[in-house]
Write the structure tokens for this entry.
Amino acid sequence: MVSQRIVHGLYAVTPDISDTNELLRRVRLALQGGARVLQYRNKSADAVLKLQQAQALRTLSQAFNTTFIVNDDAQLAAQVGADGVHLGGEDGSVAAARALLGSSKIIGVSCYNRLSLAHEAVRQNADYVAFGAFFSSSVKPEAVKADVALLQAAHRELEVPIVAIGGITQQNAATLIDAGASAVAVITALWNAPDIEASAHGFSKLF
């Protein structure tokens, strides 16, 4: 089972950017600011661009000793030697990802607002679980809503790191951390900040 240390702190989820150099520039700033986990997520890229970007981000994350996770795609995670994969509800089973990636890689699972999904993910040997959205999210405005009580219950009942996501800012993140979140996954409040490095540093200091 993966240690608390590996999925902890600011969990930066990449924005959809087709310009790989610009993506790398922004991600470097976030890593310099202290992001401890980086997830590659690009819903608009084709397979060729995804491979190119994932390979480049893998190299950059290694330079900063940052945990690198690929969203949705265990095959791509294996291809670029990522530290793991994050699975949503439609992305296949933990067992299939584990068979592809091996026992040493990290598998995270989206559990939305359902503690029962988290218990099942842990039973299948997932390494961390994610809940959300905790606040209104411009990235996923239709996302189901999770509450702090769910986070508190998960913290009591589960022995894996817990990631909170959805509309998280420096102003509201502390509430989630206090309730038991091991990491906060951030998109908009990080990448749309006037100073990405300073924003990352601000989130990191909350831990």
Notes: The radius of gyration is 15 Å.
